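User: Need the bound-state model for nicotinamide-adenine-dinucleotide:
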Amino acid sequence: MAKHILITGGAGFIGSHVVRHFVNQHPDYQITNLDKLTYAGNLENLIDVENHPNYQFIKGDINDDRFILKLFEEHQFDGVIHLAAESHVDRSIASPNEFVLTNVLGTVNLLNAARHIWHENYTGKLFYHVSTDEVYGSLGDEGYFTEETCYDPHSPYSASKASSDHFVRAYHDTFGLPMVISNCSNNYGSFQFPEKLIPLFINNIRNNKSLPVYGKGENVRDWLWVVDHARAIDVIYHKGKIGETYNVGGNNEWKNIDLVKVMCKVMDRKLGRRQGESEKLITFVKDRAGHDQRYAIDSTKLQEELGWKPSVDFEQGLDKTVDWYLQNQEWLDNVTSGEYQKYYRQQYEDR
Ligand code: NAD
Ligand code: DAU
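Assistant: Bound-state model below.
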């Protein structure tokens, strides 16, 4: 059945992949992308779909409740895939309030608007909230996050995402709002803003700048190719059970320092540098406050109940990703000019 879906945050990293996926895979759907275009939102990420007849972009702020209500009244969306958020942990340590505003209040504004237009007939409607594995806190050497793991967020970012998850579930339990939530591990791939580990270090290696590894580099993350996350969102949107949560992960754990060394090797090869050259850029710096030790997702439920699995292994995914950044150096140069320089100085100069 044809649907009109609102995707929030569609000009960001994951959002742009989700928009591209839905526009291309569901030509009978109307896709509306709502994005405020913060520092992390960039319409250059969507040049290949911007003229598709089933796509439209609307610039707007999810924190503006009256605007959001009007938007829903005008467009009568059948579904919402909500990705808009402040997403970087280090920025949440520097300025927590923006995270409460956008991630908590912005989500509640969307829930109110969805409830307002859908409350007489919830059939065929869905509010899909895209969340993170960071809500579950930090693991020791053993074990995995499952959908039953208790919430234990540590950073202002993860606390704000945990709060938004609770509101989405509360609107289901209290008002019957049809919803699903997915909690995903670390994504990597094209169009990721170079404040996050992988694109930041690719950019620094290409510019021969130091690679600031927090602490001893022993923290562990579970990396998933962003295109596989977009595929998972499609599967969960269409086959997920109302009211349920699905964990999404790549079963691909890496200690930061080991990942950085692999990236250095790949970059040396691609840039025609002597092997070992880029590793010399590694610099251990002051640790992130409240740094979670290890994330690892158990995605058995998604794999067994809904039939999703990752399409690439990490070696292929990293190779494609490095190639993309090297072939799109203009994109990197554009996003790292201006405000980025100020952010970089504030974030790294005293470490
Ligand atoms: P991102 O920072 O790259 O993009 C966020 C987008 O939201 C940007 O386009 C920005 O302009 C937009 N936005 C921010 N505030 C807004 C507002 N008030 N109104 C409208 N638009 C606004 O983030 P991302 O990494 O693509 O993450 C997207 C979502 O996925 C987030 O909800 C994040 O919590 C979640 N997530 C991210 C990861 C990851 O590894 N990056 C993993 C799991 C879950
Ligand atoms: O797990 C999902 C989460 O992954 C998402 O919800 C977040 O939106 C996303 O930003 C990401 O959070 P992380 O904090 O894990 O990602 P980040 O790329 O910032 O850092 C990855 C690891 O690398 C982490 O252990 C911190 C470390 N790091 C990061 C930066 C930016 C460094 O050592 N040096 C750095 O300069």
